[in-house]
Write a structure and sequence with these properties.
By secondary structure, the protein is an all-alpha fold. Helices cover about 75% and strands about 5% of the residues. The protein has helices at about 25-55, 60-90, 100-130, 135-140, 140-160, 160-170, 185-190, 195-230, 235-265, 275-285, 285-300, 300-315; strands at about 15-20, 95, 175-180. A three-stranded mixed sheet has the order 2-1-3. Mean pLDDT is about 85; it is low at about 5-10.
């Protein structure tokens, strides 16, 4: 049950308490080991990928710069969410300060939106590579990547900024226990004594306009890509073209599948345990981050060779 605040603290909350899996406490025991392993895998794989791209001159190309940006986003998301969850699991360190909670909320919303936008730019890169191969070097340049990175950061920093601001301005007068492992916007704002309709509405609009538009544009780009691939007549050209898009498409599936399941569980929340969306929300911050660099490392020969050389140097 949420903890009732005293009258002295009713006007200002200094900290919240994160209650993970209150209906399924045994989950914390069996989930802590795989979650910690996934976290170590995500951090190790992404750092290795970043170092490989940095050291291997042949990987200093726009597509790999975008992949580096994706790895940086994954690292920040993991560090923002998973260590705190593990501290709760292992040491029952549930308190989180007012400032830290809303900072975590902002980073989660902002960086997930940045990832979505990065996938969109990567889809455009693949579209130009397949549909306009002769123009690719003149369109997808280092300058293009720099402008794309600025757009990714600026757009998502601005549109997600009001989410924690709106929540932080609410009056928290009765409860300070968040029934979640993380400071999700709605999990926090529903503790307020104020009307949170604006919070819900803004998150709904941003979610569907930002993430929704990204998904639609990615889908459209792949329609053009598939149409171009089907028109290729040279022997083996279609297979090669599909191979260049395969890794990116798999990454999008990792990102979108868990997100889709998370949305569906909220739609049918009366039929599933309330802890299931919480679990999916936590896993969405670590599973794609762990698998993204592995997929590119396995499917991209130059990255694979670079990682092998890096390991041999270390040995």
């Amino acid at each position: 049950m949420p903890q009732l605040l005293s009258d002295n603290s009713s006007t200002e909350v200094s900290e919240f308490l994160l209650n993970c899996f209150i209906r399924s406490p045994s989950w914390q025991h069996w989930l802590s080991l795989p979650l910690s392993l996934l976290f170590l895998l995500a951090m190790g794989a992404n750092v290795t990928l970043l170092i490989t791209i940095r050291l291997k001159a042949s990987l200093h190309e726009p597509m790999y710069y975008l992949l580096s940006l994706l790895s940086l986003l994954d690292i920040v998301l993991c560090l923002t969410v998973i260590p705190k969850v593990l501290l709760i699991f292992w040491f029952d360190l549930r308190p989180i300060s007012f400032f830290a909670c809303f900072l975590q909320m902002y980073i989660m919303n902002c960086f997930l939106a940045m990832e979505s936008c990065t996938f969109l730019i990567m889809a455009y890169d693949r579209y130009v590579a397949i549909c306009h191969p002769l123009r690719y070097p003149s369109i997808i340049t280092d300058q293009f990547v720099a402008k794309a990175a600025i757009f990714i950061v600026a757009r998502n920093a601005l549109v997600t900024g009001p989410i924690p601001i709106l929540s932080a301005q609410l009056h928290y007068c009765k409860y300070n226990v968040i029934e979640n492992c993380i400071c999700a916007n709605l999990s926090v704002s529903k503790l307020s004594c104020d009307n949170i309709t604006l919070n819900r509405l803004y998150q709904f609009i941003i979610g569907w306009t930002v993430l929704g538009s990204d998904v639609i544009l990615i889908f459209i780009s792949y329609i053009f890509i598939l149409r171009a691939i089907l028109q290729l007549k040279a022997k083996g050209a279609a297979v090669k073209a599909l191979s260049t898009c395969g890794s990116h498409f798999i990454l999008i599936l990792f990102f979108s599948t868990i997100l889709l399941v998370f949305v569906l569980t909220h739609v049918v929340k009366k039929r599933v345990s309330p802890d299931v969306p919480i679990l999916l929300n936590v896993l969405h911050h670590v599973i794609p981050a762990a698998l993204n660099p592995i997929v590119y490392g396995v499917r991209t020969q130059e990255i694979k060779q670079g990682i092998v050389k890096l390991i041999k140097k270390g040995v």
